[in-house]
């Protein structure tokens, strides 16, 4: 009897699913899309209701022939691509290519690659969801029209190789607008005053609040100095004490955006690195003693929903592992925002009982770190709240009012295994020291500190994703490729974790903002996303969405072509001489950041990496140590005299000598910049 054929996107996914289905099934991979729009032309029939002109992707002809052969020999074909718009479109193209009726029950989907989920899906195949396909087509056609109409204009007027995109242009604008805010920012001086108080031997910090009960801001040194002088001989008396209890609720399970943000903050991962590791965990990892196992649910989601089975299992795990005091009486349910598609569950481990440490030896470093993050967050989201005792005391020195706050953990709850990180540092709160109304505290010192207001922070990948999500720009599948694109185009550079617009990025954004206001308008782009969601829901025909956009857009393109004059971008000249032709090298931006290139291109194709010396001699040969980047963009340090000297280090060498053995100290860039000696393991005090 002929086998049934299951087609998925990737070989690793195929291996995992084959394990669950066993005999009678042949599982093969399409290697992603096999049909797409050609790169060489617009391929949208503007006169025929914007119908796309698809072709077999170059290089996939033999694969398509093999798939046709496999499909013909099979008793039944199941299309098991990813459970989203993109996956639905791949299945639709495969069905049309392989001669499968799209109205037949040929489509299967699962939110997690487990035996239970896969076998259940096989038993309940469905028709291809044409609304999902249409939503993907609408996005593809829309982005193709924007990109292929504006980009040639930028090539002609500004520089070859430039591009414009519907979502990437908005992301670039957000980064450029933030840079303008920073440049236009005028700092304001302000002062704070703190009293160092003692209750017995216990130290307390009282922060100045106001005068005669009215909150007062200190704008200059004179105002701060007056408080220091007039409280010098005053008694500090506790005038009120307020004790209370507060609870802290666990953060919800991850969705795509929150996973990218938290992995950026806690692990230092880029969005692309996060999604790559998540894809591998979803598709299946070969675990020692278990075979190929899908470890997490589908990682492109904006839903906080959890299945009943998952919640039942995690509650059992919490009870058995941590005890009933950590298990809430009722299941915790997290509310998904209205704009979410809610097609999938939140991101969670496929089993709470597969702990990170249990499978650590079978995972790469990135896979382990990300799985550990997802697993801990999921377990924590179903644990009891953390509880705190708090104290807020008012302390007066004559007419001057100070405040003391304290907090102590009375029950750790979910924080036993997980604490959420923030983009900005939270104010530190002292531990509780019992205080009584009317008691006098000894003052050891009152001191003032000058501050200046700070401009808004530049975006990191994490904070940009957060902003894109909040403003409704893009969807879970688009955040990572959008950021990757604007960096690869040279519009933005990643300086450590910070996203900084380049001169080119600022120029292109200026042109887009002046001549294509709708394209870079946040509200317009968010509304377009809502229309795409309505296509998916079957409430709007995708051709109408494109039609309403097209005519006003093309009018704008023609007007821009007339208004924009030729703009010459001069490359910034360096002080480095090209060692092949003698010209002065210029700075260029590429996929991995800034580099030096010969201005005589294409006659001279010489390029050089930018050497950033850190002011430390090589411990092996004495040549300067330089900062370098790995192929994955990670910073490391090496000898300038490479390859003659092969010294390299992930940690930053310093000029400080170890007080014990005299060797140079190193600085760990990822752990609070702590210094240590690798020879004797001593640490800087």
Task: Tell me what you see in this structure.
This protein has 685 residues and is an alpha+beta fold. The chain is built from 18 helices and 29 strands. It starts with a strand and ends in a 9-residue tail after the last strand.
Number of contiguous helices: 18
Largest sheet: 6 strands, antiparallel, barrel
The beta-strand count equals 29
What class do helices, strands and sheet pairing give?
Answer: alpha+beta
Question: pLDDT under 50 segments (min length 5)?
Answer: none
Instruction: Compute the separation of the termini in Å.
Output: 74 Å
Shape summary: globular
The percent range for strand residues is: 15-25%
Q: What is the spatial order of strands in the main beta sheet?
A: 8-9-15-14-11-16
Q: What integer value in Å does the Rg equal?
A: 30 Å
Helix content: 25-40%
Mean pLDDT: 91
Give the key terms.
single chain; 685 residues; alpha+beta; four-stranded antiparallel β-sheet; 18 helices; 35% helix
Structure summary:
With 685 residues, the chain is α+β, with helices and mostly antiparallel strands.
List the helices and strands and how they pair.
Layout: E1 4-8, H1 11-21, E2 25-29, E3 35-36, E4 44-45, E5 51-52, E6 55-56, H2 61-73, E7 76-79, H3 85-98, H4 115-123, H5 130-157, H6 166-184, E8 189-199, E9 202-211, E10 214-215, H7 221-230, E11 236-248, H8 256-267, H9 271-283, E12 285-287, E13 291-293, H10 308-322, H11 356-359, H12 365-381, E14 386-397, E15 400-411, E16 440-452, H13 461-470, H14 479-488, E17 492-495, E18 498-501, H15 503-515, H16 517-520, H17 522-537, H18 542-563, E19 573-577, E20 584-590, E21 593-597, E22 607-609, E23 612-617, E24 624-629, E25 635-639, E26 648-649, E27 652-657, E28 664-668, E29 674-676
Parallel strand pairs: 1-2, 1-7
Antiparallel strand pairs: 3-6, 4-5, 8-9, 8-16, 9-10, 9-15, 11-14, 11-16, 12-13, 14-15, 17-18, 19-20, 20-21, 21-22, 23-24, 24-25, 25-26, 27-28, 28-29
Helix pairs in contact: 3-5, 5-17, 5-18, 6-14, 6-15, 8-13, 9-12
């Amino acid at each position: 009897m002929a086998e049934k054929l299951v087609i998925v996107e990737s070989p690793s996914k195929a291996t995992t699913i084959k394990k669950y289905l066993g005999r009678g099934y042949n599982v093969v991979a399409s290697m992603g899309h096999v049909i797409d729009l050609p790169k060489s032309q617009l391929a949208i029939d503007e006169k025929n209701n914007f119908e796309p002109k698809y072709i077999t992707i170059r290089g996939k002809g033999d694969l398509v022939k093999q798939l046709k052969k496999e499909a013909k020999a099979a008793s039944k074909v199941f299309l098991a691509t990813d459970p989203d718009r993109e996956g639905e479109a791949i299945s639709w193209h495969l069905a049309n290519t392989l001669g499968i009726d799209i109205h037949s029950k040929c489509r299967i989907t699962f939110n997690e690659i487990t035996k239970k989920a896969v076998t259940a899906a096989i038993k309940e195949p469905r028709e291809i969801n044409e609304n999902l396909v249409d939503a993907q087509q609408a996005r593809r056609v829309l982005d193709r029209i924007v990109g292929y109409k504006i980009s040639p204009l930028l090539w002609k007027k500004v520089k070859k190789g430039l591009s414009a995109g519907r979502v990437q242009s908005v992301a670039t604008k957000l980064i450029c607008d933030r840079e303008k805010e920073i440049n236009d920012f005028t700092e304001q001086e302000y002062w704070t005053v703190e009293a160092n108080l003692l209750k017995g031997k216990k130290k307390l910090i009282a922060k100045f609040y106001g005068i005669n009960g009215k909150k007062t801001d200190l704008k200059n040194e004179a105002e701060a100095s007056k408080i220091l002088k007039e409280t010098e001989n005053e008694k500090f008396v506790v005038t009120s004490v307020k004790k209370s209890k507060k609870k802290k609720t666990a953060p919800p399970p991850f969705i795509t955006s929150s996973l990218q943000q938290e992995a950026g903050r806690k692990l230092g991962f880029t969005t692309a690195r996060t999604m790559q590791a998540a894809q591998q965990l979803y598709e299946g990892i070969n675990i020692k003693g278990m075979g190929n196992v899908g470890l997490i649910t589908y990682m492109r989601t904006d839903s906080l929903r959890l299945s009943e089975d998952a919640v039942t299992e995690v509650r059992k795990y919490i009870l058995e592992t941590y005890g009933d005091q950590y298990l809430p009486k009722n299941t915790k349910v997290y509310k998904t925002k209205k704009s979410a598609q809610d097609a999938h569950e939140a991101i969670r481990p496929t089993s709470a009982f597969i702990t990170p440490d249990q499978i650590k030896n079978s995972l790469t470093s990135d896979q382990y770190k990300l799985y550990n993050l997802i697993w801990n967050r999921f377990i924590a989201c179903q644990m009891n709240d953390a509880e705190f005792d708090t104290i807020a005391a008012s302390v007066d020195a004559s007419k001057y009012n100070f405040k003391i706050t304290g907090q102590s953990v009375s029950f750790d709850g979910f924080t036993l295994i997980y604490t959420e990180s923030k983009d900005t540092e939270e104010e530190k709160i002292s531990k509780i020291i019992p205080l009584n109304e009317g008691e006098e505290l000894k003052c050891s010192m009152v001191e003032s500190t000058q501050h200046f207001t700070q401009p808004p922070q530049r975006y990191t990948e994490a904070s940009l994703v957060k902003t894109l999500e909040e403003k409704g720009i893009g969807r879970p599948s688009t955040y990572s490729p959008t950021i990757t694109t604007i960096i690869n185009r040279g519009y933005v550079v990643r300086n450590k974790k910070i996203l900084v617009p380049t001169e080119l990025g600022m120029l292109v954004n200026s042109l887009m903002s002046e001549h294509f206001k709708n394209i870079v308008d946040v509200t317009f782009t968010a509304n377009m996303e809502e229309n795409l969601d309505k296509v998916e829901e079957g409430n709007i025909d995708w051709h109408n969405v494109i039609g309403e956009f097209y005519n006003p857009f093309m009018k704008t393109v023609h007007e821009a072509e007339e208004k924009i004059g030729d703009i010459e971008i001069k490359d910034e000249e360096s002080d480095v001489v090209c060692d092949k032709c003698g010209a002065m090298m210029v700075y260029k931006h590429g996929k991995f950041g800034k580099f030096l290139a010969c201005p005589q291109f294409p006659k001279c194709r010489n390029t050089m990496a930018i050497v950033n010396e850190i002011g430390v001699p090589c411990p092996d040969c004495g040549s300067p140590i330089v900062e370098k980047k790995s192929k994955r963009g990670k910073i490391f340090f090496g000898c300038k005299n490479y390859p003659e000297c092969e010294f390299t280090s992930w940690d930053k060498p310093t000029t400080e000598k170890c007080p014990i053995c005299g060797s140079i100290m190193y600085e760990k860039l990822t752990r609070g910049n702590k210094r240590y000696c690798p020879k004797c393991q001593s640490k800087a005090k």
